[in-house]
Amino acid sequence: MKKLVIRLHRIYPVLFAVAPILSLYATNAGQVDLREILVPVAVSAAVAIFMLAVLTRLFRSLDKAALFVSVAVLLCFSYGDVQDSVSRFHVATTSLGSPIVMGAVWALLLLSAAPLLARTGRNLYPLGRIFGIVSVAMVALPLLQLAVYAARSSVSVKTAICTDNEPISLDNPGGRVQRSPDIYYIILDRYPSARTLWDFYEFDNTEFVDSLKGRGFYVADRAFSNYMITAQSLASSLNFDYINCLNRTMGDASDNWSPLFELLENYRVWRFLKGRGYRFIHFGTEWQPTSKNRFADLNYNRMVITEFSSLLLRKTVLYPVLDRLGWMNIRREKWKRINYNFDQLAAIPDLEGPKFVFAHFLLPHDPHVFDADGTFITADVAVSRSREENFVNQVRYANQRVVRLVERLLSRSSSPPVIVLQGDEGPYPAKREERDEDWRVATDAELSEKVGILNALYLPGVDTSQLYPSITPVNTFRVIFNLYFGTEYPLLHDESYAIINAKHLYSYFRITDSVR
Fold first, then answer.
1. I need a labelling partner for 315 at 20 to 30 A (CA). Which of 3, 336, 495, 496 fits?
2. How far apart, in whole angstroms, are the C-alpha atoms of residue 80 and residue 88?
3. Cα distances (Å, whole numbers) of residue 147 to 26, 29, 500
4. Residue 348, domain member (yes or no)
């Protein structure tokens, strides 16, 4: 036991350095690949070890060095959470959470600790033992959370989607395919319906909708998403089936995202088209499940830092420093990534052969980084504006980029392509902004805002009488495959489903009548 205490005494600053990373990973269990934490853990541990080695020489005491490194690490990783907690408090017109105020306080605390430790002649070993015990607890707690999660989530994830409907075959139906148009499936995350924009944001989107119609798009003006969160909505549309049957294997109280993420990567649409000679091209986001696709022939994504690493970085005192220096500004990286993907997507028609393109844009999804004309806006500017103004500005810019993109795809393609512009979900209602509240008590208006979406389809050279104003994403590829590949997939009833909350991912309940 004594040897264990001695070892803890030497390594507890390293445990403090990795504990916040493990805690963040445990909080997001099932949503983050384990490989994403390896680099942050290694870097954080290495920095702690380096600081411990250098400061042991300066303080001429391992006890003092270990305490100082621990204080520095704890201050570093607590910065973001403390800032969030105090930002709403002001002295005169200055927020207590401003980088200047927070930086001054953190610097004072750290600079005060150094001389206090250097001058003290007390035996600090007992205090080090307490720190060691605390560090072990901080590491053990997330590891226990992960173990419990793993035990509860020990359900095998099957590649094939389960179904409550008629089984789907991806084989060739035997009929002759007349054409193989390029197919673009473009997801504008949280892009709402025109009715939602008018009712909740007082924004008239008629000009954009009419511009699409004028270019030959069918715009389903009473469209709703089938599910209310991205993972479920895309898992359904990309497999052209409902996913309620996952409740049978996962249960009502599961928060295991793995089945959904598998369905977002190994899905029916690309497998159907790959079997017919298509090249699969994937445009990703910083969100891990759609950042890239291991099955794609080409992956496009301007990834400087992963979503997990960016979330971790925002919690540290390093972020405002790097931001001030113009490095690793997470908001600007989103701005650059979206513009990059639009630019690259516009060049896809130049590639030879039939192509299926899946492109996911976190636009108009927050954070709000675009002004209406597409210029970058800082966090300070965004905070000075209302939520509604920020959101509408991103819708305005999305409209501009989409119109330019559509014109490019139509003009540069050797034959007219199929283009689907779709929201996967609507925005969160103001009073329920990302909160993990029970959606069973939401009002009809809140539910309608959350699932009302843009749904526009450009289907050249075919009879589009199968389309109708309330068509939902689950039927998108059933219609496309029927019209262009001779399949006979029956159209499903257009339904919308909600879940209780993120702790009950598979507790579906029908809200169709509430939102129609």
1. 336
2. 14
3. 9, 10, 25
4. yes
Show the tokens assigned to 409.
Answer: 């795809």
Residue 435's pLDDT is what? 58
Both 204 and 324 in a single domain?
Answer: yes
Q: Do 303 and 291 contact (CB within 8 A), yes or no?
A: yes
| 3-class SS of residue 128 | helix
Say whether both 215 and 146 belong to one domain. no
Residue 243's identity, in one-letter code, is I
pLDDT tens-digit readout, 275-315? 999 999 999 998 889 999 999 999 999 876 777 888 888 89
What's the CA gap between 441 and 437, in Å, rounded?
A: 9
The two tokens of residue 160 are 């094939």
By residue range, what is the domain housing residue 121? Answer: 2-152
Phi, psi of 499 (to 5 degrees): -120, 165
Burial letters for 319-355: b for 16+ Cβ neighbours within 10 Å, e otherwise?
Answer: bbeebeeeebbbbbbbbebbbebbebbbebbeeeebb
- 3-state SS, residue 138: helix
What pLDDT score was predicted for residue 174?
A: 47
The SS3 of residue 509 is strand
Give the ranges where 173-325 is alpha helix by DSSP (H).
Answer: 194-201, 206-214, 230-237, 246-250, 258-265, 268-274, 288-291, 307-314, 318-325
Polymer length of the chain:
516
Q: Are 67 and 128 in contact (CB under 8 A)?
A: yes
Domain count, the chain: 2
**Strand ranges in 135-231 using DSSP code E only, listed in sequence order:** 183-188, 218-219
Contact (Cβ atoms closer than 8 angstroms) between residue 417 and residue 181 = yes
Question: Which letter does DSSP use for residue 293 in this model?
Answer: -
Residue 415 φ/ψ, nearest 5 degrees: -140, 155
* Cβ contact 33:292 at 8 Å: no
Number of H helices, E strands in the chain: 20, 11
* C-alpha closest to that of 25 among 46, 12, 14, 41: 41
Q: Please tell me the distance from the alpha carbon of residue 516 to that of residue 513, in angstroms, as a whole number.
A: 6
Rg of the chain, C-alpha, whole Å = 26
Other C-beta atoms lying within 10 Å of the C-beta of residue 88: 9
Q: Hey, how many other C-beta atoms are within 10 angstroms of the C-beta on 493?
A: 10
Q: What is the largest CA-CA distance in the chain?
A: 88
Same domain, 331 and 471: yes
In a domain, 509, yes or no: no
Query: What whole-number distance in Å separates Cα of residue 167 and Cα of residue 510?
Result: 22
What's the pLDDT score for residue 9?
59
**Residues of the chain whose pLDDT is less than 70?**
1-10, 153-161, 166, 171-179, 304, 326, 433-436
Residue entry with tokens 């497999």: 239
